[in-house]
Specification:
Elements: H1 7-27, E1 31-36, E2 46-49, H2 51-57, H3 61-64, H4 79-90, E3 95-102, E4 108-119, E5 125-134, H5 136-160, H6 165-183, E6 188-195, E7 200-204, E8 213-221, E9 226-235, H7 237-242, H8 245-259
Antiparallel strand pairs: 1-2, 1-5, 3-4, 4-5, 6-7, 6-9, 8-9
């Protein structure tokens, strides 16, 4: 059985490793931010950020050190996530979550981050260390895959079904609404399908647009004489700016392909 290493020796080794630990923080591709542990207003302040943080946020160290980490928050930052963050830190517990944050130029992005308390040997929390990652691309790709899978599953079901044409169309439109909501988690979705063969129009979702900005994505399949559109309405200007327009347009292309199946 191996003997345990004396505590003093461990601490001595860590002191010697301090330059290495700092170099690791400076060179890692993961964004890192260290703040004070003051939870009373005005809250924690930033004492250190690494180059990856600066690259992700577009902010230089001198712009953020001494400031609140809230400087990354904005209109689409999820208040419920922040409330959970506050509860965890108050209880001395670690935190992990996702929400929308903002770069220095105002560009929104989806962040996944974790925060851990830093404690003294006697258990006192002196700082919090946060590691952060921009997951916008990954999450959007995942949402598009999920939306497409829902659509393909309904197509498979429809092909195997003995349901009449009207019922099949309604199933298809309901799936379009479901998939669109996965890609654009804001506003409300309406899908419209027009069949020029029998001059029918089928609608899924609210028939009247809400106040706000409306995004329209059209799809058509000349071979099957089917056409339609997806309406995402009731968007705020901030939500519209953050919409994955490329993803919803690619989804519309997939819808058009399924129309011709």
């Amino acid at each position: 059985m191996s003997a345990s290493i004396p505590h003093d020796r461990v601490r001595g080794d860590l002191v010697k490793l301090a330059p290495v630990l700092l170099a690791a923080l400076e060179q890692t591709r993961s964004s890192a931010c260290i703040t004070t542990a003051d939870l009373a207003a005005p809250g924690p302040t930033i004492v250190y950020v690494n180059p990856a943080y600066c690259a992700m946020t577009g902010r230089a160290p001198e712009e953020v050190i001494g400031s609140s980490p809230r400087l990354m928050q904005g209109p689409l930052t999820d208040r419920k996530v922040l409330d959970r963050l506050r509860r965890n830190l108050t209880d001395g517990e670690p935190f992990s979550g996702e929400t929308v944050n903002y770069r220095a130029d105002g560009t929104p992005f989806l962040i996944s981050w974790s925060i851990d308390p830093v404690r003294t040997p006697n258990g006192e929390i002196t700082h919090f260390v946060a590691t952060q990652q921009d997951v916008t691309t990954q999450v959007r790709a995942h949402n598009l895959i999920q939306a497409t899978q829902v659509l393909d599953q309904v197509l498979t079901t429809a092909l195997d079904s003995t349901s009449d044409r009207r019922t099949t169309r309604q199933m298809f439109l309901d799936a379009i609404v479901d998939g669109s909501a996965r890609i654009v988690p804001f506003g409300r979705v309406t899908a419209v399908l027009i069949d020029d063969d029998d001059r029918t129009q089928t609608v899924s979702g609210p028939s009247e647009a809400d106040d706000g900005v409306t995004l329209r994505v059209e799809f058509s399949q000349p071979a099957s004489k089917s056409r339609g559109w997806i309406l995402i309405h009731g968007l705020t200007a901030n939500e519209h700016d953050f919409v994955d327009t490329d993803g919803i347009e690619r989804y519309g292309e997939r819808v058009a392909t399924v129309c011709g199946s």
